[in-house]
Each structure stands twice: as structure tokens, then as C-alpha cells.
């Protein structure tokens, strides 16, 4: 995707849905919740690139109990294939997760298909526990039975950009979350 001008780029930013201040406040709260859940036990925060990289960066700094950080990358093939085995892990964790309480730090749960496959995979590796913390949830769009343990914001069925989320790889660096204007 290419933009001819900054005006064209900005023209696709419809309205701010969640402000920087709202995000900051919610992330602080989520960090304190993690502190209270896992007092001192080995914690691994895991995100699936790229969407959750900003949320991971802020949430990890809102956590004050000892924790490690891990990243994975996945590719989904839901269009061309059916049922399971349709998520390819293109970058895996380097840690053996069997000794950790794992918290998946996700940007947004939409249909839930990608994350549900990743959860199945991680559960097979026998973590001490597994929880999902998602920045946003679009429950109207869900196609599989998947619930986050904690969602910072529930949003309607709109395409959103910013704070890690992209449209054609752009807008990830917006410091707020906005609705995308076609
Ligand atoms: P799903 O839950 O398997 O359908 O896929 C979720 C992934 O799709 C998220 O992790 C995002 O990377 C991406 N996604 C879903 N909804 C949006 C959106 O509104 N804006 C940007 N990316 C989105
Ligand atoms: Mg994602």
C-alpha cells in the first residue's frame, strides 16, 4: 500500500475510538491484575507478532512481578483450508514453556481462529497455566468458541487501526486506536 500524500494517509483515519489516555489507564489496571494473579511465580508474556507489539511493550512495563517476554509469529490459511492445522508458526518461542505461567498478550480477538490454534499448540507444551489478555475483543465476529480471560476493551464490529494494528501494514504506530475509513 502506498499513499500519495500525508492528507491521503490521514484521510483514512475516521474517528478516534480509544484515546491514548484511555489506553494508558486500562493498561495500568491490567498490569496490576497480573501482579495480583501471579505473585512472584515464573511468568512468560507471549505475543503473536506483529499486531500486539505495542500492547506488549506497554503491558510488560505495567507489570512489576518478575516476568519473561516471548514472541511468536503465525500465518493463517483459513481461506484455502478447513478445520485444524491451518496455522503455521513462522517464528516460535525459544523458551520451554512447561515451567511457566503463560499469558498470551493479544491485540484483538476477531473470529478467534488464529488464537484458538495457537492456544491448542501451547497447551500441548504443558505450561503451568495459560491465560489470554487481549487489548480488544470483537465478540460479534467470533467463529470459534474462544474467550479471553481479560479484555481491556470490547468494541463493535468495526475495522480499527493504530496502537499496533494495521491496514496494509500502515498505521501501527498511531498512539491511539481509530476506526479505519475505506
Ligand atoms: P482472528 O481472530 O483469527 O480472526 O484474527 C485476529 C487477527 O486479525 C488479529 O490478531 C489482528 O492481527 C487481525 N485483525 C482483526 N481485526 C482487526 C482490525 O479491526 N484491525 C486490524 N487488524 C485486525
Ligand atoms: Mg494479531
Defining traits:
182 residues, three-stranded antiparallel sheet, 9 strands, binds magnesium ion, alpha/beta, binds inosinic acid, six-stranded mixed sheet
Outline of the structure:
By secondary structure, the protein is α/β, with parallel strands linked by helices.
Description:
The two termini are 13 Å apart. This protein is an alpha/beta fold. The relative contact order is 0.21. Helix 2 (20-37) crosses helix 3. It is built from 4 helices and 9 strands. Helix content is 25%, strand content 31%. It has helices at 6-11, 20-37, 53-62, 113-124; strands spanning 13-18, 43-49, 67-76, 87-91, 101-109, 129-137, 150-154, 160-161, 177-180. The site of inosinic acid has 13 residues, from strand 5 and helix 4. The site of inosinic acid (IMP) has 13 residues, from strand 5 and helix 4.
Amino acid at each position: 500500500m502506498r499513499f500519495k500524500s500525508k492528507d491521503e494517509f490521514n484521510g483514512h483515519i475516521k474517528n478516534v475510538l480509544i484515546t491514548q489516555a484511555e489506553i494508558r489507564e486500562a493498561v495500568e489496571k491490567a498490569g496490576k491484575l497480573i501482579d495480583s494473579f501471579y505473585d512472584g511465580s515464573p511468568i512468560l508474556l507471549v505475543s503473536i507478532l506483529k499486531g500486539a507489539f505495542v500492547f506488549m511493550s506497554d503491558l510488560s512495563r505495567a507489570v512489576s512481578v518478575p516476568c519473561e517476554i516471548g514472541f511468536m509469529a503465525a500465518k493463517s490459511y483459513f481461506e484455502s483450508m478447513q478445520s485444524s492445522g491451518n496455522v503455521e508458526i513462522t517464528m516460535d518461542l525459544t523458551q520451554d514453556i512447561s515451567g511457566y505461567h503463560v499469558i498470551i498478550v493479544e491485540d484483538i480477538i476477531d473470529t478467534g481462529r488464529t488464537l484458538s490454534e495457537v492456544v491448542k499448540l501451547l497447551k500441548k507444551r504443558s505450561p503451568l497455566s495459560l491465560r489470554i489478555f487481549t487489548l480488544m475483543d470483537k465478540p460479534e465476529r467470533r467463529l470459534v468458541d474462544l474467550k479471553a480471560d481479560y479484555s481491556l476493551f470490547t468494541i463493535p464490529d468495526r475495522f480499527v487501526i493504530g496502537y499496533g494494528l494495521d491496514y496494509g501494514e500502515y498505521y501501527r504506530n498511531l498512539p491511539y486506536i481509530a476506526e479505519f475509513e475505506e
